[in-house]
């Protein structure tokens, strides 16, 4: 839970969506960052892709830079869109599909999420305890993703409430 509560790209994206688009978009982004990303990460974890990421620092560095570039792109979109919009114009809502996709892409390119999922969790697997290794990895990974969704959902609900107190456009530019 401590790792889930630390700010990172997923949390910043969820906060930005909550402030700029409201609770629904933020919750869908959180679902994309956890549930949809788990559909990719859990099979990788089970198939021991951890050794690939761990054995190739270059691949890990490329993944980290791809995630950074994606976040910069999302931030620039917020800043540029704010500049083109008049103060009285309502924010155009993001589609449900885009919210899910953006959350998933941000999580899949987040080195912290991948490092934890693919390098840290396998350390807690004990092949001698009688449970198949794949089942242990599935349980550990599912618990990590579930706790991540709970934290991000709470952040999404809180960020969606901030709009009432502050000017939406100012917060979008600051988050961008």
Model description:
The protein has helices at residues 2-5, 9-21, 23-46, 50-55, 57-84, 96-108, 111-120, 133-165, 168-175. With 176 residues, it is mostly helical. The protein has one domain (2-175). Helix 5 (57-84) runs antiparallel to helix 9. Residues 85-90 have low confidence and may be disordered.
SSE map:
Elements lengths: L1 H4 L3 H13 L1 H24 L3 H6 L1 H28 L11 H13 L2 H10 L12 H33 L2 H8 L1
Helix pairs in contact: 2-3, 2-6, 2-8, 2-9, 3-6, 3-8, 5-9
Compact overview of the structure:
This protein has 176 residues and is mostly helical. The protein is 79% helix and 0% strand.
Proportion of β residues? Answer: under 5%
SSE arrangement, N to C: HHHHHHHHH
Number of strands: 0
Number of domains: 1
SS class:
mainly alpha
Shape descriptor:
elongated
Helix content: over 70%
| Span of the ends, CA to CA | 27 Å
Radius of gyration: 18 Å
Largest sheet: none
Mean pLDDT: 77
* Assembly of the depicted chains: single chain
Low-pLDDT stretches are 85-90
Number of distinct helices: 9
């Amino acid at each position: 839970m401590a790792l889930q509560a630390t700010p990172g790209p997923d949390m910043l994206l969820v906060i930005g969506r909550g402030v700029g688009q409201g609770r629904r978009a933020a919750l869908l982004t959180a679902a994309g960052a956890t549930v949809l990303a788990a559909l990719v990460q859990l099979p990788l974890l089970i198939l021991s892709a951890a050794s690939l990421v761990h054995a190739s620092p270059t691949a890990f560095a490329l993944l980290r830079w791809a995630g950074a570039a994606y976040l910069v792109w999302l931030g620039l979109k917020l800043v540029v869109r704010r500049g083109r919009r008049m103060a009285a114009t309502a924010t155009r809502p993001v589609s449900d599909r885009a919210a899910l996709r953006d959350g998933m892409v941000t999580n899949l390119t987040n080195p912290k999420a991948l490092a934890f999922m693919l390098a840290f969790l396998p350390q807690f697997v004990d092949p001698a305890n009688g449970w198949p290794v794949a089942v242990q990895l599935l349980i550990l990974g599912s618990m990590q993703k579930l706790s991540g969704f709970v934290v991000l959902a709470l952040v999404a609900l809180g960020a969606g409430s901030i709009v009432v107190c502050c000017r939406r456009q100012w917060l979008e530019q600051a988050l961008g």
